[in-house]
C-alpha cells in the first residue's frame, strides 16, 4: 500500500543548493527561472521534515500544495450542447 503523500512548494534563493532537498523527500520539479522546488514527502512525517527544511539558509518560503484536496469528480447538470443536432 502506498503511503499518503503531501506536496510542498519551496521557494529558494540558490537553485544549485536546492538539489540537496532530495534527501528530505521526492523532488518532483525544480524551476531554475522562478527559483522554486516542488517536492512530495510522507504525510506522517511532513511537519518535522518542513521544520528541518525551514532551517536551511537557501530556503525563503514554504507553501503547502492543495492539489490532493481539489475535487476531481465532476457532475454535469447542464445538457451537453456539443452533440450534433441534425436537420
Automatic annotation (TrEMBL):
InterPro entries: DUF2129 (IPR016979). It holds the Pfam family DUF2129. Keywords: Cytoplasm. It comes from Paenibacillus campinasensis. It comes from the Bacteria. This is DUF2129 domain-containing protein.
